[in-house]
Write a structure and sequence with these properties.
single chain; about 375 residues; alpha/beta; Rossmann fold; Zinc Finger, Delta Prime, domain 3; 3 domains; 5-stranded parallel sheet; 17 helices; about 55% helix; binds zinc ion
Length: about 375
């Protein structure tokens, strides 16, 4: 991974390159990431740059043997640590070394646009507690006590370090404070509040800002040359600076369209119910829609409720006369226009509360058919 291919603002790249130019590379750094901000890719680019045999002022060469090994994430002095748990293949004592190949394949397949949710799915352990565990910490300490394979830097990347098992953390403190020469530890997380302060205080902070709508739109059109400018812009608005999410939105465009239609149908039923207009209530249709949603699985169900919450927020923003805060595509705007006159400010807020409760119950593996049916009646009650 070269710096030129990392989707991150230029100021961050400059900050990292300046460390090298000014010979003041901090041996333990904390990359404070935003969702989809490619901090992991930047960490690899930094490692590759430090190990490159022919670096330029601004990037690694991409062609020397060391760079080629980095491209495959197989450089012997690159050590990757990430949340792990038992899987079908690793049934006992999991650690980042046993799962390394699976993780590398995952990163490369997703072109470095990785999220913890996708990684947990990959592990097949959606409900499992995946962590960077005590065995991982022992490996780090042992590896750091040995010389580097190629005589240069040893790079340690700890991805999602908020999942570092707290009881294991003290093992790392000394290594982070006084590592062997030419070691670089890059700790990455989006959730600094979940990291022990004793760990954070031993690192230097590098902040990754959220990508702007423009940066996302430009990147999308680079990745998908056929995408129309307006579509790229729409996705950029929806993904809120998270490029991993932007890619998903693009893939799920059809799903999204279907979901919006379902939102429209269910909201129509709720409005009709609130007016006790049973002939217009289309209750059977509502039940059919609920059946469709139930069939799609729990992830989809959560996405559906999240979309409903976002639509309600947009209705709220329109009604508070803040149309500039509305983040909606053309199709969404069309649907929103049906409801902004019907759903008042207070109602939108109550309805959002009900949706949040439904989301909670769905996350806790409640019966979705019952939760959604109940939700329609509750939404109707809010509208009365
Ligand atoms: Zn190189």
């Amino acid at each position: 991974m070269q710096f030129k291919d990392v989707l991150v603002s230029e100021s961050v790249k400059e900050q990292l390159l300046n460390q090298v130019r000014e010979h003041r590379i901090s041996h333990a750094q904390f990359f404070l990431a935003q969702p989809g901000s490619q901090a992991f890719a930047a960490a690899i680019a930094m490692g590759q740059y430090l190990c490159c045999e022919h670096p330029t002022e601004t990037d690694s060469c991409g062609e020397c043997p060391s760079c080629k090994q980095f491209t495959k994430l197989s450089h012997p002095d690159l050590h990757l640590y990430f949340p792990n748990c038992t899987t079908k293949e690793v049934a006992k004592d999991p650690d980042s070394i046993k799962l390394a190949q699976q993780f590398k394949d995952f990163v490369i397949l997703h072109r470095y646009h990785i999220s913890i949710e996708d990684w947990l799915n990959e592990l097949g352990g959606e409900n499992k507690q995946a962590s960077i565990n005590i065995r991982d910490c022992s490996h780090i300490v042992n590896q750091n006590s040995m010389r580097s394979y190629q005589g240069g830097y040893k790079i340690y990347v700890l991805w999602c370090v908020d999942r570092l098992y707290h009881a294991a953390a003290p093992k790392l403190l000394k290594t982070l404070e006084e590592p062997e020469n030419q070691s670089l530890f890059i700790l990455i997380s989006e959730k600094p509040e979940q990291i022990l302060s004793t760990i954070l205080s031993r690192t230097q902070l590098v902040k990754f800002p959220r990508l702007s709508d423009d940066e996302v739109a430009v990147a999308l059109q680079k990745d998908f040359p056929d995408m129309a400018g307006a579509d790229a812009r729409n996705i950029a608005i929806l993904c809120e600076g998270d490029y991993t999410k932007a890619l998903k939105i693009h893939q799920d465009d059809a799903d999204q369209h279907e979901m919006l239609t379902q939102f429209d149908q269910l909201m129509h039923s709720a409005v009709a119910l609130s007016r006790q207009n049973m002939s217009d209530c289309r209750y059977d249709e509502a039940q059919e829609v609920i059946e469709q949603i139930v069939k799609q699985g729990r992830e989809y169900q959560k996405q559906f409720i999240t979309l409903t919450i976002r639509m309600l927020r947009n209705i709220l923003m329109t009604n508070t006369r803040h149309p500039e805060m509305v983040k909606a595509t053309a199709y969404e705007t069309e649907i929103l226009s049906e409801y902004t006159g019907i759903i008042q400010l207070k109602q939108a807020s109550l309805m959002t509360e009900e949706c949040n409760k439904a989301l909670y119950h769905i996350s806790r593996n409640g019966n979705t058919a019952i939760i959604l049916t109940d939700l329609i009646f509750k939404l109707a009650a809010c509208l009365k």
